[in-house]
């Protein structure tokens, strides 16, 4: 019989967890494992709220194991290291993103693509190698194998940098892999939310021309004046969309709601690519004819490996890229989730865990 989360491990921990599909989070006592030879333990300072946290607490993907402690945009300061840890020492600023484990032996792992390992272990809600369920960053401290911990650049803010551990790498990786990072190219970013606004910043840092594509006309000033996009398209305005047909080398689609793909395909040049990084709850319709006629590609991308995540953070620090965030207290988390569901955030909530997480 499986041990309860309160007694499965020897180190007491405290966080906020959802216990059923209502998604309501409440204070939760649990435990974390003792620090192993290759483990890094750190005090959680900040944790971003990702849209996938909302999906998970409500079991909208049908994979949630309750109780679930969300959070995979986690930054903090090291408090203890195992005897064989080589990369970190007590006092270092560190981050943990979406992964805390992988097989380390497969082809993907060998190519620094732990994010595509078939035995990857996600930071929360998945069985760890010892059989217990992982718990995320809405908690007072974390412990992770040093391979899945990244160094935090000194000049990158902890609070507004935290969302880069998911939103940042989720958009940086496809820009790089699909060759949409070349100066002079023209890409589209669909959706100006947590992922989209960071995608704009990375693309501009690469020297790419950016068009934001949104259903919300009122986001135009924000996209162009504040985030530096070159142009803005209202996706349900047929005249605007028609005028922009065949102008984009690629599109990063960050939208997590069901939406039509055909209008986006029409914006691409021949050989253009749409990269899906948002995760709608239901399948999208994919018209094949425009793919064939333009040798166009619809592809996907999921976060990044640990090496690329470190590369992304270092790039962000060099180019002063950080998320636009609203810092909130831990006891505001349920209100934040309600607002996130209504897209009422610009553009990422970040929990001030260390200063507002109080044990009960």
Automatic annotation (TrEMBL):
Its cofactor is Zn(2+). Residues 23-351 form the Enoyl reductase (ER) domain. PROSITE patterns: ADH_ZINC (PS00059). InterPro entries: ADH-like_C, ADH-like_N, ADH_Zn_CS, CAD-like, ER, GroES-like_sf, NAD(P)-bd_dom_sf. Keywords: Metal-binding, Oxidoreductase, Zinc. Belongs to the zinc-containing alcohol dehydrogenase family. This is Enoyl reductase (ER) domain-containing protein. The lineage of its organism: Eukaryota, Viridiplantae, Streptophyta, Embryophyta, Tracheophyta.
């Amino acid at each position: 019989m499986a041990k309860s989360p309160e007694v499965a491990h020897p180190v007491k921990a405290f966080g906020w967890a959802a216990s059923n599909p209502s998604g309501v989070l409440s204070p939760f006592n649990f435990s974390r494992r003792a620090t192993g030879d290759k483990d890094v333990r750190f005090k959680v300072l900040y944790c971003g709220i990702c849209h996938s946290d909302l999906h998970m607490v409500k079991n909208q993907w049908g994979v949630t194991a309750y109780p679930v402690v969300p959070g995979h945009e986690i930054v903090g300061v090291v408090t203890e290291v195992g005897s064989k840890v080589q990369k970190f020492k007590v006092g270092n600023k560190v981050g943990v993103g979406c992964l805390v484990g992988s097989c380390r032996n497969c082809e993907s792992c060998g190519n620094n693509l732990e994010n595509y390992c078939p035995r990857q272990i996600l930071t929360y809600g998945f069985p760890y190698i010892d059989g217990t369920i992982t718990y995320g960053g809405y908690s007072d401290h974390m412990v992770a194998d040093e391979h899945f911990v990244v160094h935090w650049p000194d000049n990158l803010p902890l609070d507004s940098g935290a969302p880069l551990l998911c939103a940042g790498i989720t958009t940086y990786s496809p820009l790089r892999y699909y060759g949409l990072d070349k100066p002079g190219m023209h890409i589209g970013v669909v959706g100006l939310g947590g992922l989209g606004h960071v995608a704009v910043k990375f693309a501009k840092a690469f020297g790419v021309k950016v068009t934001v594509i949104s259903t919300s006309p009122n986001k135009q000033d924000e996209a162009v004046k504040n985030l530096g996009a070159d142009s803005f398209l209202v996706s349900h305005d047929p005249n605007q969309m028609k005028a922009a047909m065949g102008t984009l080398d690629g599109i990063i689609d960050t939208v997590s709601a069901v939406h039509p793909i055909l209008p986006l395909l029409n914006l691409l040049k021949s050989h253009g690519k749409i990269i899906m990084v948002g995760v709608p709850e239901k399948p999208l319709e994919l018209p094949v004819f425009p793919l064939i006629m333009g040798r166009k590609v619809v592809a996907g991308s999921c976060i990044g490996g640990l090496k690329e995540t470190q590369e992304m953070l270092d790039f962000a620090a060099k180019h002063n890229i950080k998320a636009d965030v609203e810092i909130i207290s831990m006891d505001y988390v349920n209100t934040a989730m309600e607002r996130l569901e209504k897209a009422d955030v610009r553009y990422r909530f970040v929990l001030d865990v260390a200063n507002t997480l109080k044990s009960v």
